[in-house]
Every structure is written in structure tokens, then in C-alpha cells.
Specification:
Layout lengths: L3 E7 L3 E8 L4 E8 L11 E2 L1 H17 L8 E8 L5 E3 L9 E2 L7 H19 L8 H11 L1 H4 L4 E3 L1 H10 L4 E2 H4 L5 E2 L4 E2 L1 H7 L9 E2 L4 E4 L2 H7 L6 E3 L2 E2 H8 L7 E6 L3 E7 L11 E4 L6 E7 L3 H11 L5 H8 L10 E3 L17 E3 L7 H26 L5 E5 L6 H11 L3 E4 L4 H14 L5 H8 L2 E5 L3 H27 L5
Helix pairs in contact: 1-5, 2-3, 9-14, 10-12, 11-12, 12-13, 13-16, 14-15
This protein binds adenosine-5'-diphosphate and 5-O-phosphono-D-xylulose.
Pfam family, one: FGGY_N
InterPro entries: ATPase_NBD, Carb_kinase_FGGY, Carb_kinase_FGGY_CS, FGGY_C, FGGY_Carb_Kinase, FGGY_N, Xylulokinase
Catalytic activity: D-xylulose + ATP = D-xylulose 5-phosphate + ADP + H(+)
Length: about 500
């Protein structure tokens, strides 16, 4: 009988489940969307049980509509949206909605950590204590919801909660543990120094596992609900950007990953911790054992386009809308957009900045606005690539994944703005393929990730930069870079009106 692995990509907009056979062929792919409530400006939450129910619904469709035999599913693993805080009580029940990676309510807690630990925090974790990271969310609950804090037995990251519901076992994998910024990245242990200084009880720290570690079989309750078999072995899984890098074959430093999902990411493979980014970029443990990756994150990349579409173009699908933008010229007839609609993380770690359209002219039409949004998101990723340039990294090629890579118009814009060749995957779901690869390596189907990559990764088209476009974008990028410093004060003053 054919054997398959499941890659479960728990994104912010939806969960995508991909079944892949031993040859690396996708034999089924299903997804379920779920809401992302924003109860106040800057807040972003999700109900962890929506992730579980969404995954169950997607797997049921895979089994019943795509005819993936449950007994053929030898292994499953995960790619998960990072940093989100799931708090569990003594009965392992969820205490409050998860506080997500793009929730920026925690500026006060960020400052407290900076005041108490200063540079030492970056030395230990490889990261700054930014609003997005789990540690500031823990402190926020401790300070603002003492009744919930008193109930906390442990905490998990999003995909780790899903794994717990599938296997009954509690653990966090290392690639998501660095994203909490509570892990000492040098010795891969929870930092008791940070816990002590910030008053976080050691007893709530969950056990740590590697991405490729066996984490248990699917338990009968979950198998019944999802039409699965308890034969399926479950493996640790990884932070979505780690899994995305694996699924896109980013295994050397000259090839960067760009991901446009809800967030936007530029990611660089790091063989060790020798490059000191000083917290300007994130540094994370990788799912490939004993390696790391650095990355910069735009908080609202695909999220900006989704906001724009829902608000102004609700009756067209993404493909129609982005294709139409292909008929607007480079620079959208003089219109620029900054995607800071949820604040920004990198290069401007500013929870109060907000987005803007600059240069609106009465000759412009809808396609210009759509193009400006797509270009502005891409400029924000170029801003991150510029940090790598300054540090001296040699990146000569980009692999592009995530929902944004579905659009040929946008991928060409990426090639032109980055002024580098950009390759897509045949199936843009890099994180899902990466998650399936983790299960395949965990099962021992392959000797390691490089051998699995040879079989599982199928590249699509390469978009070469068009020099005339790249030259125009280089000039526009200089203008784009002036918008943040010039709108910062205005954005901050508007805070009280949001
Ligand atoms: N056909 C398309 N063309 C361009 N962008 C798209 C298309 N479909 C979806 N997107 C963008 O991709 C984003 C979702 O990407 P995805 O990788 O699924 O995100 P997540 O993992 O955060 O759920 C959306 O926010 C949207 O902006
Ligand atoms: O915060 C980060 C990475 O540090 C985000 O990249 C999240 O991991 C969410 O990812 P998507 O839902 O956009 O894939």
C-alpha cells in the first residue's frame, strides 16, 4: 500500500493540510479558515480550539474527498504560526484566547524587560524582547489578568497545542522555543536567569523536544473525530518559518527565503551563531538539528493585501485583483503604500506606527492602489534585505513562498524590487511541505533533510529581474524609506483616535 505523510501548516489565516507520498508527490491538500479577532487596535487573538477543529475538518476532507486512506498515513508533523501564547490550566484546558505574534499590546512589558535585562537579554536569547514574542505576552497576562495567571499550569505555542490534542503529550519544539525568547539559544535550555529576573515560575516551562522527535501516536479521540487511524506517528514539528525554509530547500546562506503569508519574512540560513545581528533581526533554532536561521519580519504583509481587498475590492478574488494590478505601471503612477497597518516589527520595531498611502492623485485608479499595496509590502521586505546587505551577507537568489507567491504579477514585482532572481515552488505551500518532510525524516524514510529535499521539493518558475524596472524601483525605494521617519510622529499622535 502507498505510504503518506501529513504536513499540517497552522497559519494565521487558515490551516492547510498536505498529504505527500514517498516520491514527494502531493496526493491531497485541504484547508480550513478561521477568524482572527482583533478586540482592540493592536490586539490579535485566536481561539486555540478553532485551530483543532479546523485541522479535524481539513483532515476529514482529505480522507473523504481526496481518498487518502487513513492507514496509509504513516506520520504527521507541523508548521506553526510562531510566538502565540496558549495558556493551560491544571486540567490542560485553555484559560483564555491565544495572544498572537502580531498582537502589539505589550509595549510596556517590552520596556520592563529592556530596563531589567538590557543587552544581557539579547546575549542570552539572540533576540530583543519585542512585543510579538511570547515572553512579553506572559508578562502582560501576569500584570493584567491575575485571576488567569493564578490558573496557569503551563504554556504552549500554537502548533504545540494542536500536537497535544492529537497525541495527549505536552512539549514545545526548539524552533518555537527560541521564538518565546525565554530560551538560552547557546545551550538550548530555558533561561532560569530570565525567569528569575522577570518572576516567571520555572514550573510553567514546558518540556523541550526536537522537530524530528517522535511525540506519540494519534490518540483514539482525535482519530475518531478526524477519521484518522491511531497507526499515525506524530513528530515534533517546527515554527512555520523554519518549516518553510526546509520546504523551500533553503539550506545554504546565499539563498534567502521570502514568505508572504499573513506576515512577511526574509530568512537566512545560519550554520552557527557567529554572526551577531544584535537583535536587529531574529535569531532562531532551526528544525534541521544543530543549525539556526535569522530573519526579519513585516507584521502585515499578506494581511495588508487582505485588509485592502476586504475593504475596497470585496467582490473579486485575489487572482483577478492582483492580475489587474499588472496593468498599472512600475510605481503605480506615483503612489506609495507602507504596510504598517498593525504596527511594524523590522526594521522599525514600532507598535504605534501605522500605514499610509502617499502621493494620491486624481488620475489614479483602483489598479494603481492595488499595485501600490503589493509594491509597498515588497519594499518592506527589501528594507529587511538591506539589513543583510549592511551586515555583509551575500544573497544572490530568493525562493518565494506563501500565499503571495501564487501571483505571477507579484513574484515579478519581488524580482524587480529585490533585483535578484526569484524562484517559486510548484506548490506555494512551503511550510506544509516542510512539515511533511519533518515527518518523513522522523519516520526514517530518508537519511536526513538534504536527501528528503531531493525527493520532496519541486521548484516552479524563476522570475529574473527586468533591469529597467529594477532601476526605477531602486529610486522609488529611496523615497519609500523616507516615509517611516516622516510619518512616525503623526502615527503616534493619532493613537488616541484609534
Ligand atoms: N492568489 C493570490 N495572489 C496573491 N496573494 C494571495 C493570493 N491568495 C492569497 N494571497 C495572500 O496570501 C496571504 C495568505 O497566505 P498564507 O501563506 O496562506 O498565510 P497564513 O499561513 O498566514 O495563513 C493572504 O493574506 C493574501 O494576502
Ligand atoms: O511572527 C512571525 C515570525 O516571527 C510570523 O511569521 C508568524 O510565524 C506567522 O506566520 P504566518 O501566519 O504569516 O505564516
Amino acid at each position: 500500500m502507498e505510504k503518506n505523510v501529513l504536513g499540517i501548516d497552522l497559519g494565521t489565516g487558515s490551516v492547510k493540510v498536505t498529504a505527500v507520498n514517498k516520491l514527494g508527490d502531493i496526493v491531497g491538500q485541504e484547508s480550513t479558515s478561521y477568524p482572527n479577532p482583533q478586540p482592540q487596535p493592536g490586539w490579535s487573538e485566536q481561539n486555540p480550539n478553532d485551530w483543532v477543529n479546523g485541522t479535524i475538518a481539513a483532515i476529514r476532507k482529505l480522507v473523504n474527498d481526496d481518498n487518502v486512506d487513513p492507514v496509509s498515513i504513516s506520520g504527521a508533523s507541523f508548521s506553526g504560526q510562531m510566538h502565540g501564547l496558549v495558556l493551560l490550566d491544571k486540567n490542560n484546558h485553555v484559560i483564555r484566547p491565544a495572544i498572537l505574534w502580531n498582537d502589539t499590546r505589550t509595549t510596556k512589558q517590552r520596556k520592563e524587560i529592556e530596563d531589567k535585562l538590557g543587552k544581557r537579554f539579547v546575549e542570552i536569547t539572540g533576540n530583543q524582547p519585542l512585543e510579538g514574542f511570547t515572553i512579553t505576552k506572559l508578562l502582560w497576562v501576569k500584570e493584567n489578568e491575575p485571576e488567569n495567571w493564578a490558573k496557569v499550569k503551563t504554556f504552549l505555542l500554537p502548533k504545540d497545542y494542536l500536537r497535544f490534542k492529537m497525541t495527549g503529550n505536552i512539549a514545545v519544539d526548539f524552533s518555537d522555543a527560541t521564538g518565546t525568547t525565554l530560551l538560552d539559544i547557546h545551550d538550548n535550555k530555558w533561561s532560569l536567569e530570565i525567569c528569575q529576573v522577570l518572576g516567571i515560575p520555572e514550573k510553567i516551562l514546558p518540556p523541550l523536544i526536537q522537530s524530528i522527535d517522535y511525540a506519540g501516536n494519534v490518540i483514539p479521540d482525535f482519530a475518531d473525530e478526524a477519521d484518522m487511524s491511531t497507526i499515525t506517528k506524530v513528530y515534533g514539528g517546527a515554527a512555520d518559518n523554519s518549516a518553510g525554509a526546509v520546504g523551500a530547500g533553503i539550506m545554504s546562506p546565499n539563498n534567502a527565503l521570502v514568505s508572504v503569508g499573513t506576515s512577511g519574512v526574509v530568512l537566512h540560513h545560519e550554520v552557527d551563531l557567529s554572526t551577531d545581528y544584535g537583535g536587529r533581526l531574529q535569531m532562531e533554532d532551526h528544525s534541521i538539528p544543530n543549525t539556526y536561521y535569522s530573519m526579519g519580519v513585516t507584521l502585515a504583509a499578506g494581511d495588508s493585501l487582505t485588509w485592502y481587498k476586504n475593504t475596497f475590492v470585496p467582490d473579486e478574488d485575489f487572482t483577478e485583483m492582483t492580475d489587474e494590478a499588472g496593468n498599472s505601471p512600475i510605481g503605480a503612477n506615483g503612489l506609495l503604500f507602507t504596510p504598517y497597518i498593525a504596527g511594524e516589527r523590522m526594521p522599525h520595531a514600532d507598535s504605534q506606527i501605522r500605514g499610509s498611502f502617499v502621493g494620491i492623485d486624481r488620475t489614479q485608479v483602483r489598479r494603481d492602489f492595488t499595485r501600490a499595496v503589493m509594491e509597498g509590502i515588497t519594499f518592506s521586505l527589501k528594507d529587511i534585505l538591506t539589513i543583510y546587505d549592511e551586515i555583509g551577507a551575500t544573497i544572490d537568489h530568493v525562493t518565494s513562498i506563501g500565499g503571495g507567491a501564487k501571483s505571477a504579477v507579484w513574484t515579478q514585482i519581488q524580482a524587480d524590487i529585490f533585483d535578484k532572481p526569484v524562484t517559486t515552488l510548484k506548490n506555494e505551500q512551503g511550510p506544509g511541505i516542510g512539515a511533511a518532510m519533518i515527518a518523513a525524516v522522523g519516520l526514517g524514510w530518508f537519511t536526513g533533510f538534504p536527501a528528503c529535499a531531493d525527493q520532496f521539493i519541486k521548484f516552479g518558475k524563476t522570475y529574473e529581474p527586468i533591469q529597467a524596472n529594477a532601476d526605477k524601483y531602486a529610486k522609488l525605494f529611496k523615497i519609500y524609506q523616507q516615509i517611516y521617519p516622516q510619518t512616525k510622529k503623526i502615527s503616534h499622535e493619532l493613537r488616541n483616535f484609534r
